[in-house]
Amino acid sequence: AVFRPPLLPEDPRFMGTTLAQIHGDVPGLESWLKRVFTVMGGFMASTGVLTVFIASVALPARLPGASWAIALSGALGVALMSATNFALNSDFQWLLLVPALAWVAGLAFFVRGR
Hints:
By secondary structure, the chain is mainly alpha-helical. It has five helices and no strands.
């Protein structure tokens, strides 16, 4: 992957194994994960484009359904990501809490502004 290796040091630790053991048991895993993360990155980028569009068009106009769409997309995106990183005891769990907190704050400000 461009921005990170397919397996972080915390991944084998969570699985109770070592990177060397994974390489020996599943030799093609990392190349497969690179493809998976490329696809996932594309979905994340496209979601970001749609989020920016909604934030710049639907939210200022207070279009019907905008608040529930932002609430649901945030819950399925950043909140689930953050919760999963805490469940995995990720080395980055506290850093990855920041987007979820920003989403909650933004949603609260939007709803309160009604």
